[in-house]
Design a protein that fits this description.
Two copies of one chain form a homodimer.
Chain A lengths: L1 H19 L3 H17 L1 H17 L4 H7 L3 H16 L7 E6 L5 E8 L2 E6 L4 H12 L3 E5 L5 H17 L7 E3 L6 H7 L7 E5 L2 H10 L12 E5 L5 H13 L8 E7 H17 L3 E4 L1 H6 L4 E2 L2 H4 L7 E7 L2 H11 L4 E5 L3 H10 L4 E6 L16 E3 L7 E3 L5 E12 L2
Parallel strand pairs in A: 3-4, 3-6, 4-5, 7-8, 7-12, 8-11, 9-10, 9-11, 12-13
Antiparallel strand pairs in A: 1-2, 2-16, 14-15
Helix pairs in contact in A: 1-8, 2-5, 2-7, 3-7, 5-6, 10-11, 14-15
Organism (chains A, B): Aeromicrobium piscarium
Function (chains A, B): Catalyzes the NADPH-dependent reduction of L-glutamate 5-phosphate into L-glutamate 5-semialdehyde and phosphate. The product spontaneously undergoes cyclization to form 1-pyrroline-5-carboxylate.
Family (chains A, B): Belongs to the gamma-glutamyl phosphate reductase family.
Chain lengths: ~425, ~425
């Protein structure tokens, strides 16, 4: 298995060297061909997917996991359209990040160049296969796609279609390769192929991400887990606060930018707590509340420290009243996973203190936490949301899939 | 030991929270006070250093290592001056990296914020202690400094002086802490203090760097190793090529941006090889050459594949004639450590093909490889040269010691 993964990585490196010389037009033509081929191959992809779905059901896979695994013609059309949208985005490769003329006449430019070979280790959804391959290709890199075992036939079908389209447009098919998911060791070999793979991105549950971080010797970008807070300040517009809490918690509960914890300033608790409890109960949200919340509705279950630390990814929220803005910041620094925090306030000073005090990838002032998203931020495509501080933090688009090099041009300068 | 390292990291985190709120003026005042205190404490620092040097000699440490360990009043003044220079640099924290107004009226800004807690694991030179502490402080982060055992007393003296100066200016002394180097495990605990330490930077030999990369669960930036190439193209100005090869190889041999390999295009080999052999021999450089080089001077030792892969860090160079620019690029992609490569050419097309074809942190066109340096690039301070692609590549200054956050300001936007 190690040999197989390393061979794939070597082929990917050599293909990436070809891609590094390709023009934007060549890359975009390949992406458009890939999108068209995916739509044209809908039937084959759905047939492969049907086998995966049947296999998953047979193994007693929970229905929500089966749902994420399941494709239909609309879902295929949607990810094909995503590939087409990547073609329309500007090419990040070649962008000049900074530059200057040095005192000795050297011209210094820092420019974006391809990363090389990017490994993706992910769970569930087959659409990630097409998304990730397209983003990596546009950013000038080869992708090694290691999805989950239960999606293996779907992923193989999608990869086969994209490889054929690549080859037909004259780029190496080995720019996109599926890594066998038969046993766990293929993921381990991928994340330890130091020197062959430049970057590994895990996408999935907390367990997967922790395993990759611990075992990988290839540099990793951690994605995803979001224990997201909304803090309603003493100076908040309470109507706006109601809307933002409800939207952040309930607009979609299974995503990393959904709110999981509510903190309310004591000065407004008497007025705000009963209102937000009613609004959340109306939407069937289970509240884990402190004494102030329980006073508003005795049916509220008591909040535990474990709840404070939990990313529910469900219609549940932990809720506390805090004595001050600083207490809110301290609570968030203690329990947050560093994804997104929001403050609702009319006070500029409170907004500034909050944004400087918390330490997360995104901070919202008077806006829903659901906006932490590459599409919403205008990046056009997103390969995940980084919750680490190195390299990329927050939604990652094409730029974050590149590295840079310094080009120094002279006419014989010596030291 | 684990407890001790983790306690230090916790104190550093809490100190970093205070520093994150400090103004540029407060940070600069602290840095200037540190620089003055280091000069004032020269005698104590030299006394501690004398004990380290005596201990190292007693253990039979090689004289070049003892030399790097040894301080005198001039060296103390030099690193104190370095700290003062860091104070004079612009503050990277708060810099707006990009920003836009989104269609829904949200204002999006990506701004630089402090990394938090940075661990340095390094060998030999005590000046790294002062340099690293100053750069981390200016970038808003606390530093945990784990130097080598043989420099422990020097490092402890330098750290004590800087901590006192910090405390006197009102910032927490725990922003700068030395980690005991009594046994190897303190380094291991530092690089596995995930959640407490945000970044670890190893500086030292290849063995140290490999160990950190393999054992660390905290994100790492690899620094340093440089198997640096100079390629002399068919279209080169041969006088310029002579100067650049000689300067790249001999101006200082023990540094990572010194040339280690020479590649010469076959078309000019007959004229150029005897000249460069003479010039290098005049400067006592040992040449490991292929048949063409041996033909120019039979005393030249035959080059092996191991030589091609070796960073000599000494007055030695491997040298080969190549048939084409592409052969040079292939050789470099195979053997380079991704630090710096240079081409000497008058051809714009060759320069473009070379810069796109190699995959290194810096590429020089008609300039000495010795220019890959934070000081030469105008960064004002350098904490090392990254040879990895993630986060920072090439010389790292203050900006590279920060991360970013997205600030999103709205007036009640919902999804």
């Amino acid at each position: 298995m190690k040999q197989m993964v390393h061979d794939a990585a070597r082929r990917a490196r050599s293909a990436a060297t070809v891609l590094a010389q390709a023009s934007r037009a060549e890359k975009d033509a390949a992406l458009i061909a890939m999108a068209e081929a995916l739509v044209a191959a809908t039937e084959e992809i759905l047939a492969a997917n049907a086998l995966d779905v049947a296999g998953a059901r047979e193994e007693g896979t929970p229905e929500n996991v089966v749902d994420r695994l399941s494709l239909d013609a609309g879902r295929v059309a949607a990810f094909a359209d995503g590939v087409r949208q990547v073609a329309a985005l500007p090419d990040p490769v070649g962008e000049v990040v900074r530059g200057s003329s040095l005192p000795n006449g050297l011209e210094l430019r820092q420019i974006r160049v391809p990363m090389g070979v990017i490994g993706m280790i992910y769970e569930g959804r087959p659409n990630v296969t097409a998304d990730a391959a397209a983003i990596c290709l546009k950013a000038g890199s080869a992708s090694l796609l290691r999805g989950s075992r239960n999606a293996a036939r779907s992923n193989a079908a999608i990869v086969a279609v994209m490889r054929d389209a690549l080859a037909a447009t004259g780029l190496p098919a080995d720019l996109i390769q599926a890594i066998a998911a038969d046993d766990r060791s293929s993921a381990t070999h991928l994340m330890q192929a130091r020197g062959l793979v430049d970057l590994v991105i895990p996408r999935g549950g907390a367990g997967l991400i922790r395993a990759v971080v611990e075992e990988s010797t290839v540099p990793v970008i951690e994605t995803g887990t979001g224990n997201v807070h909304v803090y309603v300040d003493a100076d908040a517009d309470l109507e706006m606060a109601l809307d933002i809490v409800v939207n952040s918690k309930t607009q979609r509960t299974s995503v990393c930018n959904a709110a999981e914890s509510l903190l309310v300033h004591a000065n407004i608790a008497e007025e705000f707590v009963p209102k937000i409890v009613a609004a959340l109960h109306e939407r069937d949200v289970l509240i884990h509340g402190d004494a102030s919340f329980q006073a508003a509705d005795p049916s509220i279950v008591p909040v535990t420290e474990e709840d404070d630390a939990t990313e529910f990814l469900a219609s549940e929220i932990s809720a506390r009243v805090v004595d001050s803005l600083d207490a809110a910041i301290d609570h968030i620094r203690c329990y947050s996973s560093g994804h997104t925090e929001a403050i609702v306030t009319r006070s500029l000073a409170s907004a500034q203190r909050f944004t400087r005090g918390v330490d997360s990838a995104a901070v919202m002032v008077n806006a829903s936490t659901r906006f932490t998203d590459g599409g919403e931020f205008g990046f056009g495509a997103e390969i995940g949301i980084s919750t680490q501080k190195l390299h990329a933090r927050g939604p990652m688009g094409l730029r974050e899939m590149t590295t840079t090099t310094y080009l120094v041009t002279g006419d014989g300068q010596l030291r």
